[in-house]
């Protein structure tokens, strides 16, 4: 499971701190050096780790903590609060349109889990009583449409496709169809590429301008560590995303992406995916994730 290395290292550092009883400033600084190393080893962005440790140290070396009865426990509590804040504080919900349909544009690099997560999200909305529809907008790979249909079937959600024509025309067609059939949420599975390129971004920008989605969710693979964060930054700079879905957290990812995405892009992780099955999708709760990391 993700975060094991980080969780172990942090727990060791805090155990040493607890064994000391009364703390000195240098004890705290030593522990924070260990925390910083653990974060870097978990592939957390360098500046994010540095700023994080600086903030925790500043709050910890004050007299309130140092002179308390359980100083080590107070330090761990501060780490917990700052980890939660780093990941965005509160859970961030999907922004629903005041007048349906809500349009959710999924984007991401090929292989990130975009199609799988479009279907997982559709399934979640269906279970919540909505009537979502998946829209096949990847017009470059005929196999992409078939894959979406397979996933749509697993989710029990209809898939709208018009073959390989202009994606904006497909989406307009889906909006008309959805209106007639009572679909209140349209989830757009856009094309991905192996790398970020201008052509892909221009197409996504054009869809954004013509369709004005309520949400632009970027799907990133947590296994790619710092690259996931770089991809998120590039998509956000070019497109202005509204949130991130972090996938493949069931693998042995070191977790750095979960901790850095928000700080680097300013955009929240809204969902996490941990598995290939339709049900493997959870809203992202920073406080819960922090407790998981701190054990
Ligand atoms: P796309 O190219 O971005 O649309 O990516 P896909 O949805 O086709 O996913 C690529 C591969 O990753 C597929 O084999 C999926 O089954 C797998 N996958 C997607 N999400 C997850 C996840 O959360 N965990 C794991 N282990 N595999 C995933």
Task: Summarize, please.
This protein has 295 residues and is an alpha/beta fold. It is built from 12 helices and 8 strands.
Q: Can you give the mean pLDDT? A: 95
Estimated share of beta-strand residues = 5-15%
Bound molecules: guanosine-5'-diphosphate
Determine the N-to-C terminus distance: 13 Å
Which structural class do you get from the secondary structure elements? Answer: alpha/beta
Physical arrangement of strands within the biggest beta sheet: 3-2-4-1-5-6-7-8
Low-confidence stretches: none
Q: What is the H/E string?
A: HHHHHEHEHEHEHEHEHEEH
Assembly form of the protein: single chain
Number of strands: 8
Q: What is the 3D form?
A: elongated
Number of helices: 12
The largest β sheet comes out as: 8 strands, mixed
Provide the helix percentage: 40-55%
Rg from alpha-carbon coordinates: 21 Å
Family: Belongs to the GTP-binding SRP family. SRP54 subfamily.
GO molecular function: 7S RNA binding; GTP binding; GTPase activity
Subcellular location: Cytoplasm
Protein name: Signal recognition particle protein
């Amino acid at each position: 499971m993700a975060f094991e290395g980080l969780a172990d290292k942090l727990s060791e550092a805090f155990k040493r701190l607890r064994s000391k009883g009364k703390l000195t400033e240098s004890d705290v600084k030593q522990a924070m050096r260990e925390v910083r190393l653990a974060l870097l080893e978990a592939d957390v962005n360098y500046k994010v780790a540095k700023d994080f440790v600086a903030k925790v140290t500043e709050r910890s070396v004050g007299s309130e903590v140092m002179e308390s009865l359980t100083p080590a426990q107070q330090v761990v509590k501060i780490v917990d609060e700052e980890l939660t804040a780093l990941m965005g504080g509160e859970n961030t919900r999907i922004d629903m349109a005041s007048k349906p349909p809500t349009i959710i544009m999924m984007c991401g690099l090929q292989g990130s889990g975009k199609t799988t997560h479009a279907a997982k999200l559709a399934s979640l909305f269906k279970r919540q009583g909505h009537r979502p529809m998946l829209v096949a907008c990847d017009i470059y790979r005929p196999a992409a449409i078939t894959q979406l249909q397979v996933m749509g079937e697993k989710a029990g959600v209809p898939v709208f496709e018009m073959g390989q024509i202009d994606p904006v025309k497909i989406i307009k067609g889906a909006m008309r169809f959805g209106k007639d059939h009572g679909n209140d949420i349209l989830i757009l599975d856009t094309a991905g590429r192996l790398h970020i390129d201008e052509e892909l971004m221009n197409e996504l920008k054009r869809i954004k301008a013509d369709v004005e989605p309520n949400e632009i969710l970027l799907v990133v693979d947590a296994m790619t560590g710092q690259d996931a964060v770089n991809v998120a930054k590039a998509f956000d700079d070019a497109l202005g995303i509204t949130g991130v879905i972090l996938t493949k957290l069931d693998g042995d990812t070191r977790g750095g992406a979960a901790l850095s995405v928000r700080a680097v892009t300013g955009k929240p992780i809204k969902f996490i995916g941990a598995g290939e099955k339709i049900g493997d999708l959870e809203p992202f709760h920073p406080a819960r994730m922090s407790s998981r990391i701190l054990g």
